[in-house]
């Protein structure tokens, strides 16, 4: 299916109804609360009833597994998030976007993994004053790395925390680009040597994946540009430079993916012209064989006729003469093809 | 016909003349008046003479069947709508658009259904202070659902009512996208396995429908962006967030349809290269058969000649020798093709 | 000729020299003066010497036939029109455009007719305070209709008169769209059934005409957008809504023509893939015939050889045995092709 | 060479070094000084030492032949032109552009001639208060015409003089468009009737020339738009309308060249589909001949076999029977092809 | 590899970590300090500990070899450069860009060399008050030329120095364009005469390189436009005209590379149509040979049959009659092909 079937669930349902749309990717929904200030860090697994709403430092609420609709709803209520936002968090076929509400910013971004085939998850972030909430479909190494750095002491405000996560996500895109780049290299080799009908299918597949990837990364630029450019009360002026840096990475990814798309297009053309070349080769062989043998076969036909009066048949060296004529004809043909550069 | 023939009716007619352009899709024009406030709801089928112009709450006037030109005209007069607007309401080949008049907003939007082939209806909405008028060509489930919710108590202003209807229309587009997506999946399978000349026609049909769909959904974005962004006296500031949400859905639909169009284009390329591949296969077979048999048939021709002096013919094992030679030639050809990877 | 040869006449001539560039489409240049106010209408055919410059109502000066260079020049002088404008009026290869002079507005627009092949005329309008001058190459039904409505009493200012004419021109484009749409339908049928080399030429012709049409209608949007949006002293604020309506029609025409262009492009692709399909069919037939007969013809060749010692030739049922073997080979080939789905 | 080799001369040279880059197109560099006011005109050939810097009227300095680097440098000094401008004047591979310096305007434009193949020269203009300097690579008719008009009395300021020259250049582009249009007409005829491998090369050549032309005319629009729109002290407000007129011509040229490019593209497609059509024709002929003769040749093979017991061979009318059978087979094949519309 | 593998190193590393990403292109990292004012110049090779931070004139710090991470870090600290900037300096897969920090401007640009294949290096420049720092991967002739000019007395501020370097880089792009242009000329010749399967690969390679080049030069325009247009305290108003000049060169390079890309595209089409043409030639030959010999071979077959009663066989001149018939048939076929223009 090119678009997820689950999207149908939302049709004819009242607006702002929280429904989980997507695949269950972890067993259970886990809510991890990290509270920290310059001195202390505390990492706890919490229940939806005991959410830490106020703290003397920064609260990072990390939700893993979005099929727990009730949990997500409770979090929405606890932090007074608009029901439309909660609906979007649960709908994993959401677009990448940033929505600026009065006292929080809502960001949706995609995470790609390349297990077998390109897989895509949705990561939502809500940035409030001193609070960052992250909703994600499964565990990622790079978020663990962020957590480790926080524990190790690399602390900043909620906005800086958001930056490090977005930076990690965008950096993970480079890995996807590398995968695409390898696929293209492989296809290029294939097309230059031993391409088959399947090569065409692989090219189609590649373009499809590149298109899906593109759809997810283009809006990332706008999200980051908003955070880097506009004077938002939730983003410290000194941190804007960091968002500008990620923004720059995003543009680099977009440009490279554009370059890869151009390459894929050029590969398709290469494939088509090599197909034509191969057809030419096949037809050349057929034509050479036919052009050499059809005329001399005709000669054998002539002397296979049963006319009573055919003087050549009586000649002592008639047979050898004909063999010689046939060799000469065949040779002339070969010389002709040699000249044309066909053999 | 790629564009409706009825469009010709409008040529050489004075401007602002109300003429119904389109197909009659219901038997009779029905005018349904829903009046409600926080406490009460009343649903009535009314005649054009007894339109509820003033009420203590919200009036939703729902007209089903646009061939009733007189009815529509009377409604236009009763609510002082500009004749140009009434002309547009009746012309179902109208573009999707929003027009901002001084004390009302006029919106035209398209509804798609997929019975057999893509069908498109026109839905016009006029939003006035505490009044919403909807003109449509036939009955839809999703508008009934809206009505049920209003009766059940989910009430708001006329602007919120308009939002719920637009939201339902845009959500219904996802269903169309799913249909397209299924067609593409089917065509993809076909092209990979047993495509015929008809596959090409189906691809053409698909692109045509996607283009028609695109033409109707692109301007929806602008309509909703207007309602979400501009500070309009008819749209409550608190409700603007809802229009922003539908706007977001519209963009998602546009992006997905763009993605589907790219896929359709890539399918066409896949089809063409598979056609070429198949031609190569056909020509390979012909070439193999010809290249093996033409030379050995020539040999049989040689020994079919009737020369009196052909020593080989007299040899005892001449026949077997020639059979052997022919087998060797055929085998060598086969080995050659094996090496080339053709057999 | 893809661009009119007469364009060469303008090269190396001083700027603002009035030269008629185009084809003579009516016998004589006629100047029709319609003067009217709320009560009276007067329609006169006038000579260039007796132009009605001042009147108590609205003056509509309608010039038919642009080869009367002297007449046009005199009108320019009488109403103090800039010589560059007069030059443009006479040059029928002008672009569609609006030029805003201090006390008049100059509009150039194209009128299409579809007699045999697409023909294009130029219509220029000059709107002054209470005066409208229209220059056109021949008579049109839709302008007669406007005149009839004026006589019948449907009067307004010069700006409203200009609107009705522009509205009529834009509505006439729908007819052209219908013609294109029919051509496309015809070509589609042709491509699906019995296309020939000429089909390709027709497609080329269609694209060419669509391009010419596009070139003329795209700038219409900007012309009308100017009249609808900007606060111009010559356009009454209440009439701006009418220009907005024509503007809307123009956009619809552009969108539809864009859709038709996409269809034409898709038809070209369909044509190419059907050509390939047909080649495949031809080659399949050749391959089937060859593959069945070449091997069994070889067998007949073997038993046509004249070796003295060929035991099979002496067998009683040798002939029938060989016939049987040949039938089996042919049958096996047929089964093979059946399996491949070729027969 | 697709780009001029001489461009290499500029690499690794200090900035603003005056070097002549281009081909010498006249024998000697000539400096013509035309000084005029409302009453008098004086045309002199001057030496670089005696340049007329001040005058009681307008000075037009016309330099023909850019290889005289020293002359150009001296003019630059005499009229205090920035060294970067002089560098650009001498580099004939310059882009078309307008540069606004404090007290002069520098314009670079291209002149095309169509002797055999498209040739391009560079024309630079510097407009100062009451002074116009034109640098050009060779003599042109249209500049002579301007000079004649100045002598004849058609005088204006330096800005008006500049306008008449730019107008003449832009008008000369129409001639180039006519040449392109004729090439396209010729190619269209060729493709419809007797195209060869060379046709493809001609199409490539045409596209290349159209691209070169496009590169030179697109920026002309911006140059003229600057002169027409911005309130520049060197351009009289009353003359701005003239620049607007040339601007309009430039847009017409761009639109027409765009249309020609579309045509050229469509011609390429036409060519490819006609190539395919021709291949189909060739293959049809081969298939018809093969399909008719291969089966009946097989029959002759059967009765050419030397089996002792072949009853048919002994029949009295066996030979005639077989001839009849073969005729029937051939006829049936012909009928089959007739039905398919191949013959 | 289409994108450098080393990019993977940055994934899962804390932001702003200085890591060298790229290939080591010189043996050792060298830091060259050029200090100068109107009277004196001093060129020294310095150690990272003894960087000249303050001077009575201009300091140009030139770092060659970016693998010396520690050296670069120390320079960053000495001139208080933001760690993100240092990170970017070391990452040679950076995009071309300009970043405006409060008291310095950071520019990344690419240098291309064409040894065998297109190679690309990264050049970073930091412009501070009276200081210019250049980080580069290896030695270039054109920077040596700049240094020589500085020593010879062509001195200006740090901004003018930056201009001369950027100007030299942009001028070096013209050389690359010349290389591309030569490749295209070569390919054009190849396609017109003796193209092979490899030609297709070369075309693919060319497009790939042109795309890489394009990716690096497009943003150069924006970088230079920033320096030319905005009123930056670090760029002297009088020098802005120089940046405008380089900006102009950059646009020329972009336009030319765009033109080359169009040519490359047109070459691909030419190649494909020549492939088709060649196939047509091959098939024509096959068809001619087959169409001439298949019918006359059939005739020999007829008279090779062994029927007892075949009157023609007994005729005295039967053999000659048949030879004549066959010659006539062959001749007629030849005349037919002559008429069709095939031979």
UniProtKB/TrEMBL annotation, chains A, B, C, D, E:
<dbReference type="InterPro" id="IPR004488">
    <property type="entry name" value="Mg/Co-transport_prot_CorA"/>
</dbReference>
<feature type="transmembrane region" description="Helical">
    <location>
        <begin position="285"/>
        <end position="305"/>
    </location>
</feature>
<dbReference type="GO" id="GO:0000287">
    <property type="term" value="F:magnesium ion binding"/>
</dbReference>
<feature type="transmembrane region" description="Helical">
    <location>
        <begin position="317"/>
        <end position="337"/>
    </location>
</feature>
<dbReference type="InterPro" id="IPR045863">
    <property type="entry name" value="CorA_TM1_TM2"/>
</dbReference>
<keyword id="KW-1003">Cell membrane</keyword>
<dbReference type="GO" id="GO:0050897">
    <property type="term" value="F:cobalt ion binding"/>
</dbReference>
<dbReference type="InterPro" id="IPR002523">
    <property type="entry name" value="MgTranspt_CorA/ZnTranspt_ZntB"/>
</dbReference>
<comment type="function">
    <text>Mediates influx of magnesium ions.</text>
</comment>
<dbReference type="GO" id="GO:0015095">
    <property type="term" value="F:magnesium ion transmembrane transporter activity"/>
</dbReference>
<dbReference type="GO" id="GO:0015087">
    <property type="term" value="F:cobalt ion transmembrane transporter activity"/>
</dbReference>
<dbReference type="InterPro" id="IPR045861">
    <property type="entry name" value="CorA_cytoplasmic_dom"/>
</dbReference>
<keyword id="KW-0813">Transport</keyword>
<keyword id="KW-0472">Membrane</keyword>
<keyword id="KW-1133">Transmembrane helix</keyword>
<keyword id="KW-0812">Transmembrane</keyword>
<dbReference type="GO" id="GO:0005886">
    <property type="term" value="C:plasma membrane"/>
</dbReference>
<protein>
    <recommendedName>
        <fullName>Magnesium transport protein CorA</fullName>
    </recommendedName>
</protein>
<dbReference type="Pfam" id="PF01544">
    <property type="entry name" value="CorA"/>
</dbReference>
<keyword id="KW-0460">Magnesium</keyword>
<comment type="similarity">
    <text>Belongs to the CorA metal ion transporter (MIT) (TC 1.A.35) family.</text>
</comment>
<keyword id="KW-0406">Ion transport</keyword>
């Amino acid at each position: 299916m090119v678009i997820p079937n689950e999207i149908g669930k939302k049709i004819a349902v009242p607006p702002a109804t929280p429904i989980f749309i997507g695949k269950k990717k972890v067993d259970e929904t886990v809510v991890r609360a990290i509270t920290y200030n310059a001195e202390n860090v505390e990492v706890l697994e919490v229940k939806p009833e005991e959410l830490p709403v106020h703290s003397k430092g920064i609260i990072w609420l990390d939700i893993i597994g979005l099929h727990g609709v009730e949990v997500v709803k409770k979090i929405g209520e606890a932090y007074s998030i608009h029901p439309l936002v909660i609906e979007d968090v649960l709908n994993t076929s959401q677009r990448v976007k940033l929505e600026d509400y009065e006292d929080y910013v809502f960001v949706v971004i995609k995470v790609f993994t390349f297990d077998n085939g390109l897989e895509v998850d949705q990561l939502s972030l809500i940035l409030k004053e001193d609070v960052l909430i992250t909703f994600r479909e499964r565990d990622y190494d790079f978020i663990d790395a962020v957590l480790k750095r926080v524990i190790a002491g690399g602390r900043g405000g909620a906005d800086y925390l958001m930056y490090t996560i977005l930076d990690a996500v965008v950096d993970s895109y480079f890995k996807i680009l590398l995968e695409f780049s390898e696929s293209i290299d492989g296809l290029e080799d294939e097309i230059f040597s031993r391409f088959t009908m399947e090569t065409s299918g692989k090219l189609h597949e590649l373009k499809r994946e590149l298109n899906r990837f593109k759809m997810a990364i283009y809006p990332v630029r706008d999200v980051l540009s908003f955070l880097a450019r506009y004077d938002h009360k939730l983003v410290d002026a000194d941190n804007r430079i960091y968002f500008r840096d990620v923004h720059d990475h995003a543009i680099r990814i977009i440009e490279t993916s554009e370059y890869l798309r151009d390459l894929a297009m050029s590969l398709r053309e290469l494939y088509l012209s090599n197909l034509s070349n191969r057809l030419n080769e096949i037809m050349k062989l057929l034509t050479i064989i036919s052009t050499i043998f059809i005329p001399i076969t005709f000669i054998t036909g002539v002397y296979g006729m049963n006319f009573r009066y055919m003087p050549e048949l009586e000649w002592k060296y008639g047979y050898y003469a004909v063999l010689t004529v046939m060799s000469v004809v065949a040779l002339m043909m070969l010389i002709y093809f040699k000249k044309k550069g066909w053999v």
